[in-house]
Amino acid sequence: MNKRFGILKRGLAIMTVFCLLFPATSHAEDSVNPAVQSIMTTTPVEMSAPGGDGAESGDGEPTEIETMEQLPEVNTNENLEQQIIIVYAKSGEDNVKELALTTEEVASGEQLSNRVDLIEVSDKTNVDALMADLAQNPNVLTVDKNDKIQVTSLPNDPYVTNGSAWQFQRIGADQIWNQISNADPVVVAVIDTGLNVNHPDLIGNTVAGYDFVTGKTNVVDLAGHGTAVSGCIAAVTNNGIGTAGISGLANIKIAPYRTGGMYSGDTQLDVAYICAAILSAAERPEVKVINMSFGGYGTFSSLAVAVSEAVSAGKIVVASSGNEGESWNSRVGQYAYPASYDHVISVGATNKDNNRASFSQYNDRVDLVAPGQSVLTTARSGGYEYASGTSFSSPIVAGACAVLMAADASLDAEAVETLLKSTALDLGTTGSDPYYGSGLIQLGLAVAAIHSSDTVGSTYRTHVQNIGWQDWKSDGQSSGTSGQSLRLEGIEIKMNNLGNDLGIEYQTHVQNIGWQGFKRDGQTSGTFGQSLRLEAIQIRLTGAAATSYDVYYRVHSQNYGWLDWAKNGCSSGTQGKSLRLEAIEIRIVPKGAAAPGSTSRPFVS
Hints:
Number of strands: 32
Protein name: S8 family serine peptidase
Region (Disordered): 44-63
Family: Belongs to the peptidase S8 family.
Signal peptide: 1-28
């Protein structure tokens, strides 16, 4: 044992001396220090080349980002607080190059469109400070933190039904199914959870969109919300199956943009994707309308800028007012966005009885209402379902806008909104109010108004107790007073027919006098200076063109409020009750067009 140990000691000593006398060769040095070899053999070109996946340069310095392809893709379901949306003033393939960002500051990134980038800031970088720095760049329109926004739908009925699509009867859409035939399609961009493009009741009514979740042109809908929204607009009419969209037989197509919805029932949309979708839709000349059935109560500068860009591009932008209208909800009465931005048509929801759906958000930014409680529409499964929420009243209005543009391609966004508001069925308190806006859309009347408003209209004024003659009103506006206990004493009505052989005549029932004889075309009916109240009125059209039009009128009567609409010479008001008229509205519509509202009780005797 000791002998073996002695031999081993002598061997180790010899090896030590050998190493001291003969230094290691260059080959041995290379083997034990590969890092030195790597640096020595790297060319200058390789030293300056961009790295991938957050690579740094060979000397350890962070790499400047010249293209988003250098970075891993952002996971929008994680680390939202570290994600920044960048909206550029100009289009560009690699706008990020001008920002002088480095792989030390940015962990991942994605170019969503040629105007929008999304980056995830590294943990060691101050997000707010970086945003402030980026905002100084002249090519950056705005920077914003990324977030999620909820779609504005409520849970669907748990079964597929084959019930009647009542929503279109309430707005007169069923009367103009086959009246509009436009060669060039009017495209509605639906920014939502995507679309089942193979749904049998939507095939043929879609055009190319984009799936921002997958980064592909082939759009899917895993959540189902986008398919339901799209069906309200463009479900195929007269194909013998399912339901129909508000578009009827007009040539209206859906361009689906998927901005969220990762699984069935997922209600979250990504703000960055939404902004990119809005800007992409705004650049397409065939897109005339943008529907946004979602909303949140935070403010997003990126979303506001994107909407403003779409409005500036001439698009009609429609959004749901929100579902927080219940009295117990902490958000009741608040502004939801994007619906409450300027120049966005904010849409609330009504039920079958033309009452505000209890969930429908209300405020002074609500413009119009449409059916939104238990409306029949297309389901992701390929079948049908009843759905509730302002998510579904919004596309009904968006589809109505598209129908009007299909009927008259010269209309712009302002003209379309004016048509819908001026022909809407006034609900709630008289005039525009926070619950119903200008009222329930009446598509049949709006379409009719396109063809009649330039040639036929009525103007009228009333003589009011203590006030005298009021200014002239026209085409459904209210003349008189309400809630002031002031009587109407006289009225004058005339036609603006611009060449049509169409006149108007009218007679009033006056206190202590009864029915007076008919007056016509601007003459005074009733009295003034005698303190006598008007109690009822009859109005009818005259002339050769009278067979082409109907006149509707309704009065606000003491103790009754607004009575229902009378038509073509029928009595409106009261008789034998000593009750005064306080206000009147008059509308001229093409023969056979839908009534402005209920006609069941225009006169009480």
